[in-house]
Amino acid sequence: MKQGKQSWVFVNKPTIISTGVTGGPFEAKGKIAEEFDYLHDDLWMGEDSYEKAHRLLIEEAVDIALQKAKLNKKDIDFFIAGDLINQLTPTSFAARTNQIPYFGLFGACSTSMEGLALSSFIIDHNGANYIVTGSASHNAAAEKQFRYPTEYGGQKPPTAQWTATAAGMALVAKNNQQANLPYTIYATVGKVVDLGMSDPFNMGGAMAPAAADTIFQHFQDLNIDHHYYDLIVTGDLGKIGRSTSLELLKEKGINIPEDKYQDCGLLLYNEDQPVMAGGSGSGCSAAVLYGHLLNEMKKGKYKRILCVATGALLSPLSYQQKETIPCIAHAVAIGIDT
Amino acid sequence: MATNSKTKEQQKYEQLEKKHELKRPVLKNCVKAFFVGGLICAIGQAVTYFYIYFFPFTEQTAGNPTVATMVFFSMLLTGFGVYDRLGQFAGAGSAVPVTGFGNAVISASIEHRTEGYVLGVGGNMFKLAGSVIAFGVFSAFIVGIIKTIIVQWSGW
């Protein structure tokens, strides 16, 4: 049901019945390594290209989510997912393997919440019984496409972010009143915001206004404030984007306490890992939410959270043509009854 | 919005964002670049002397084998995954010497090995270094012409 300008209310509480989270070697040394279902110890993952390894990450995450829920691929109505690579080949090739009817999404690093919002809407309106949704990224495949070769000795500035090698998939189903399973409450669909930032080595700074815009609109549409949530977590703003968006929200009269406003890009890695301003990539928010944060909710740490995944909608070509970076943020509210 | 003129809102945001931006440690980077770049050049100088003392090269002709040797070292370090870490530490210090040029060619070749030798390695080898070669050769050509003209006119 639509409410306000940009938001949906999910009256039937679509439920996330299981998740599958896979990652790479760098994530295995991170802060939340034990919350991944499967971690590879090598970026190649036994495949002969990074793009194929990327596809494998997605396939494994889907398989794990299905195994946990004891469901077959045939039981799944839709697969709604995406990644960062041109023409979404890793996700589409994974859809070729799993043979689930498929929608490919591109929202850069906001894909995880774009998929969860759409899946929840479809389930909420009886459009499906089971949907697998999520997103993924692979560090070396993304670097190859967007930046420089992996072994190139260019110096990255401290504003740069580290693309995560991770995939996070969630199995969304109709609510059958089972306790201790997270369900979606609201979603706010973001609009593209561009405040003229053009440095691809400072994505956080470019994406912060989009996050602030969506959070502001979310509160407006649903007539709530930050007290409704135990945690507001952004996709991958990193250090710079996080503090910038907090200040932007303050200007708009929304004062979220520091400790309640976290960022997936800062939750994924340890302080001593060389990730500059923090993690990023479409797998980052998916892995942190579907791995770490939902576990914390099941343990009772949070009752309601708002996940705001942010995406920078640029391409290497648009950057070379001196275009600024348009950004988007999608928010989904998740709750749990214990 | 490909235009350079920014709206008021964009300018205001730029100022706000600047406050939160992590600055490049320029002075620290310069010092690191100076010492690492200097070290690489010192090694290059040692290689030059090596060719002069042990082989029949002169100070004028030892340049070519020295460059080849330095690029070979750079290739090993790139292949073993060391040069990109050195680059993050040293910045221009490891990018400006010829070893940085070697790294740019070799890293692109390794990266595109998965697309085959012809379309991958051959086609992408000069993806980063190509413009260095193009503009390097072009500016050498211009400088050469200027020199020739001056030499001809002044009748040296």
If you had to describe this structure to a student in words, what would you say it looks like?
The complex is a heterodimer of chains A (338) and B (156). Chain A has ten helices and 15 strands. With 338 residues, chain A is α/β, with parallel strands linked by helices. Chain A folds into two domains: 2-173, 3-Layer(aba) Sandwich (Peroxisomal Thiolase, Chain A, domain 1); 183-335, Peroxisomal Thiolase, Chain A, domain 1 (3-Layer(aba) Sandwich), CATH 3.40.47.40. In chain A, strands 1-2-10-15-14-11-12 form a seven-stranded mixed beta sheet, sandwiched between helices. A six-stranded mixed beta sheet of chain A has the order 4-3-9-7-5-6, sandwiched between helices. In chain A, strand 1 (2-3) and strand 2 form a beta hairpin. Chain B is mainly α and 156 residues long. Chain B folds into two domains: 26-125, no CATH class; 130-156. Chain B is built from eight helices and no strands. Chain B has helices at 8-20, 26-54, 63-79, 83-90, 92-95, 98-111, 117-124, 130-154. Chain B starts with 7 loop residues before the first helix and ends with a helix. The interface between A and B is large, with 38 and 44 residues.
Could you give a short account of the major beta sheet of chain A?
7 strands, mixed
Largest sheet entry of chain B:
none
Mean pLDDT of chain A: 95
CATH class of the largest domain in chain A: Alpha Beta
Helix residue percentage of chain B? over 70%
Order of strands, widest sheet of chain A: 1-2-10-15-14-11-12
The share of residues in extended strands of chain B comes to: under 5%
Largest interface: chains, residues each: A-B, 38 and 44 residues
Please give the alpha-carbon distance between the first and last residues of chain A.
25 Å
Task: Please indicate the percent range of residues of chain A in DSSP E strands (runs of 2 or more).
Answer: 15-25%
Order of helices and strands of chain A: EEEHEHEHEHEHEEEHEHEHEHEHE
Within the CATH hierarchy, at the fold level, what is the topology of the largest domain in chain A? Peroxisomal Thiolase, Chain A, domain 1
Give the number of DSSP strands of chain B: 0
Oligomer: heterodimer
Order of helices and strands of chain B: HHHHHHHH
Overall morphology of chain B = extended
Discrete helix count of chain A:
10
Q: Structural class of the helix and strand makeup of chain B?
A: mainly alpha
Number of domains of chain B: 2
* DSSP helical segment count of chain B: 8
Count structural domains of chain A. Answer: 2
